[in-house]
Design a protein that fits this description.
The protein is α+β, with helices and mostly antiparallel strands. It contains ten helices and nine strands.
Length: 286
């Protein structure tokens, strides 16, 4: 009997059937692919009627209804009979949460986020890059009456986010060029939608070690973010504090930046970053 790793087995990769061929089209279930497109669109819009969802996808209502009904049987979506709308269901969250459990980043950052919130008095956030946006993975809210709110799963544009600008700053010139080539949406008068202005801002982020979202996504809100590095020293996530400009004033930016950088180093160390990136004692550059 041939051993599993015997070259006589054709060096077939484990987890693939014997008939597997390196042709994606031949190994795709079209109906499943279409169904997942429906699920992704519903997740994007959060709530939609059958006709709205069908129209946005360019599919017939009958087709979309069959997909939704099938997903509903498995708890992946659910319907609001009174509003005649569909939403993502609880079992979709349970499946998605497996991703969060697979990585130690979320679990290991949680106590550090909580400490950052207590030290700063503002909401603390954790985010990573996903398809040109910041995907918020975790948040610890302040108890202050006016506060930022980015629930896990929220997406925000990279160029108009503190964490997003941290991720862009260390992503490399080629990635930034591809990102800006698509055009940069303007959200407020403070949004850096000009590629040259954004490039200057990203250079400043690298110089001082933190980014500032100064009312660039929402008027009246300010965010300060710092990088998180993996065991290879690569920036893989960002950590931030967000709050109203009345509390996060220009005079407080330096003090808060030191807190955020310290928290970023602490999370980096917790996930195995080299000591040069993992020390919690470095403070913001002048």
């Amino acid at each position: 009997m041939a051993l599993p790793n015997n070259p006589g087995n054709g060096d077939r990769k484990r987890g693939r059937p014997r008939a597997f061929a390196e042709k994606t089209e031949q190994n795709t279930i079209k109906a499943l692919d279409r169904a997942l497109v429906v699920l992704s669109e519903l997740a994007r819009v959060e709530s939609a009627s059958l006709s709205e969802l069908a129209q946005s996808l360019g599919e017939s209502p009958a087709t979309v209804y069959r997909v939704l009904t099938t997903f509903a049987l498995h708890g992946m979506v659910e319907s609001d009979e009174r509003a005649q709308t569909w939403q993502i269901g609880p079992d979709a969250f349970l499946i998605g949460s497996v991703f969060l459990r697979r990585t130690s980043l979320v679990d290991r950052s949680r106590p550090i986020l909580r400490q950052l919130m207590e030290d700063s008095g503002e909401t603390a956030n954790l985010g990573v890059e996903k398809d040109g946006s910041v995907l918020f993975l975790s948040q610890v809210e302040t108890s202050a009456p006016i506060r930022a709110f980015f629930p896990p799963g929220t997406l925000s544009p990279l160029h108009a986010s503190g964490i997003g600008k941290v991720l862009l700053a260390y992503a490399g010139e080629a990635y930034v060029n591809r990102f800006t080539a698509k055009g940069l949406q303007v959200f407020t008068p403070h949004t850096r939608a000009d590629p040259d202005a954004l490039a200057d801002d990203l250079a400043e982020v690298r110089r001082r070690g933190y980014a500032i979202d100064d009312q660039e996504r929402n008027m009246g809100m300010r965010c300060i973010a710092a990088p998180i590095r993996n065991p290879h020293g690569e920036v893989v996530a960002g950590i931030s504090v967000s709050g109203p400009t009345s509390r996060v004033s220009p005079d407080q930016v330096r003090e808060l930046a030191d807190m955020v950088i310290k928290a970023g180093h602490a999370v980096s160390a917790a996930i195995g970053a080299p000591a040069a990136f993992g020390t919690p004692y470095e403070t913001a550059a002048d």
